[in-house]
């Protein structure tokens, strides 16, 4: 009887250990972004794209290494740096070793500092920060660190491509710059002023204004300033509800020129602009949806729509993030040794289904890729956004934009 009891105890312990091991096999990715409040639609659409990418690109194909599956854990940060740090700690306590975030560079700055500090103090539970949309240049310059990787072009890279296009339009003599009052909005303004001055051959900035982020209910006063300035074009880095608010107000107040944007597509924005935005809204982005870059991308988009009929793949970089992470984990032979994974991400070249080659620049962990400038239209679409009949069609492309751009990053790597 003693032997039977002993055997039973061992078996029970083995089951517990086996169950724990199986649970630990999941590669946990913490998604820390807004899932409530004025930017909830942006965050929720991003979450759906991460969940789908993890399943479609990894889990449904058998997982990684010994069958490990990617699990995306959602955390609502309400676009608050303070709340984001609380959610970061919860995520780490739940076993997440990868953090993805993109909405608000203010949040990204808080996260990258906290993760750097955590990793120095806790070498057994280190975390990688995979930044898919926060584009403050400082994150891959003075505030760079080994644990942070950016999968989107920073705002300077985007502005470099945008201003190349703007200065080619000889009808543009006056530009109005408007954005959200935080680090990203200020970076957009600074880059626009500097680059237009350097390239513009007399282009005049007739307005340069910042407004509170997520708090303006009526953008009419701002729009009237734009129209009265005599501007031929507008540049804005606004995103979410602020993008829709400023864009609609400018158009509704009679502005006829191009509005150059960073984030004026998807998450309900395309549908809300509809016909009013046709041939006016222009967007700088990575990845080509119209025309679709590859048949793999077409199949992926169609599969996404089967699961999320009301959704959009408006951030193809999310799929690049999952794909590059999966490749790095496979090459490292481990999902838990984040130093090894980070070392594989550094310098990685990756063929994106959305078109072109991606290069993770090792000196600052800034992705380098083709950048496209597209126009809001209902013509020549492979895929629309928001089931609206309208989408963004590529008009021009800058290949491997800012490949040789300078960086002030002085990265310290773990020993």
TrEMBL record:
Pfam families: Peripla_BP_6 (PF13458)
UniProt keyword Calcium, yes or no: no
Keyword tags: Amino-acid transport, Plasmid, Signal, Transport
GO BP: amino acid transport
Residue ranges occupied by any Leucine-binding protein domain in the UniProt entry: 27-373
Source domain of life: Bacteria
Presence of the UniProt keyword Signal in the record: yes
CDD domains for this protein: PBP1_SBP-like (cd06329)
Signal peptide per UniProt: 1-24
SUPFAM superfamilies xref list: Periplasmic binding protein-like I
Family: Belongs to the leucine-binding protein family.
Name listed for the protein in its UniProt record: Leu/Ile/Val-binding protein
